[in-house]
Amino acid sequence: MSTPHVARLTEIVGAANCLTGEPELTTYTTDYRKLYMGRAIAVVRPAHTSQVSEVMRYCDEHRIAVVPQGGNTSLQGGAVPTDAMPGQDCIVVSLTRLNKVISVDPVNDAMVVQAGVTLAAAREAAEAAGRLFPLRIGSEGSCQIGGNLSTNAGGTAVLRYGNMRELVLGLEVVLPNGDVWNGLRALRKDNTGYDLKQFFIGAEGTLGIITAAVLKLFPKPRSTSVALIGTASPESAVELLAFLKTRLGHNITAFELISAPAMKLVREYLRDNEPLFEAEQDWMVLIEAISHADQADAVELFHAALTDAYDSGLVKDALLGTSEAHARRFWQLREEISDAQTRTGGSVRCDISVPLADIPQFIHEATARVLALDPAIRMVVYGHMGDGNVHFNPLRPGTMTARAFSDAYGSRIAEQVDNVAMSVNGSISAEHGVGVAKRDELLNVKCEVELQTCWHIKRALDPKNLLNPGKVLPDFAAVFGSTK
Ligand SMILES: Cc1cc2nc3c(=O)[nH]c(=O)nc-3n(C[C@H](O)[C@H](O)[C@H](O)COP(=O)(O)OP(=O)(O)OC[C@H]3O[C@@H](n4cnc5c(N)ncnc54)[C@H](O)[C@@H]3O)c2cc1C
User: Fold this and answer.
1) Exposed (0-12), middle (13-18) or buried (19+): which is 180, by Cβ within 10 Å?
2) Is the CB of residue 174 below 6 angstroms from any atom belonging to ligand 1?
């Protein structure tokens, strides 16, 4: 039954870019963490917006489900098909070939890129024009601007520059019926009604396929200072951030908390045997500050602020990134924690956010609840503390297999941690989105009015429920209490 569809899709994108064989299909239908695996009749790789539009129009006519895919690095199962629509044909539309940087404008501080440009390539293009595109996440070599927009990605510079939603001026989007909306405006002020682009940002491919974007650029800092700090507790880390804000203001770009088990895990993974701190530190913070002043002046200010923090007891020990190699090592230790966990297997990943002042209470309460299940669980806790965002990812005891850990504790840990986050008015997904992993939990954390309004928007744009069905929104019947 699907053969005529494949034939027509092949006509649109060419045989080399309509994949139906193995092992290619499995690569695109399995998510990054290999937790979700679906089925598709083809993977289609258009080269232009017009091809995306033709593919979408054909799928709309024939009621074929479409899963947009960027770099497939997202962590909630949103980028691969699921069996949400049993019996319905489904294709993956990979944006990989829409990979051109169209223009970089250092006067207007904006650049236009296609959706399939990787984050690393976008950052390089900005750098080549003497500007900064500040989004920075560990997957930058593979993830794509379209995926970053669709997940409203965050990362390690949100404290200073905001998340993806704040870094975009305009979008081009192919709608579920194949129409193309060209909203590639590069304006910083445009109060002409609804801000349509915001619907598609963070929508995880459920409302439209983003094909291009106008991104904001920033002046490149003249100096960057990095330090890895040992601090007594989450409380002192929060105090330290407040102290540094009064001293360095908006110049702090990153403030990343790392627990001792997280550091141990990543050092083992990287085989990093170089000495770190003289004494074991229970909690560490990676701090980065930028400046547009002269390098020597900026470093002096940074060091003076840390010295004063040390004198007031907020810092137990400090390793200063005095060379590029030092700074790179500190960043590598932070950025590889996620992959160290993936490689080790058997962690429950909870990406929560809470108001900054409530971070200590959240960590203590959630830790107590997890350790009450099994005191041998390793408390891998890290993340973008400056944004109130903690990756609270308990790891299996060394004696337990990943499967046994997941079966015994997986859902209980996630539920407990989310409950603690909600008890302090937090969010159960700070930056990783909803996908399928968190979809049904929205029923517990969002009110009926909000969920019903989201479904009204979905139905207005995608009445046949073809774009990424089964993602983000809990089942229609569960939200409305009926199937109509
Ligand atoms: C090592 C590692 C570190 C990470 N660190 C961070 C971090 O610090 N902060 C953070 O926020 N995330 C992080 N992530 C998660 C992930 O990299 C981000 O969510 C990223 O933005 C996903 O981009 P992608 O291109 O891989 O999207 P994909 O995984 O391909 O897709 C993500 C979602 O967007 C949709 N989508 C993709 N492209 C489009 C498009 N063009 N139009 C419409 N919908 C589309 C998909 O259908 C899916 O729902 C990390 C992941 C890894 C593996």
Assistant:
1) middle
2) no
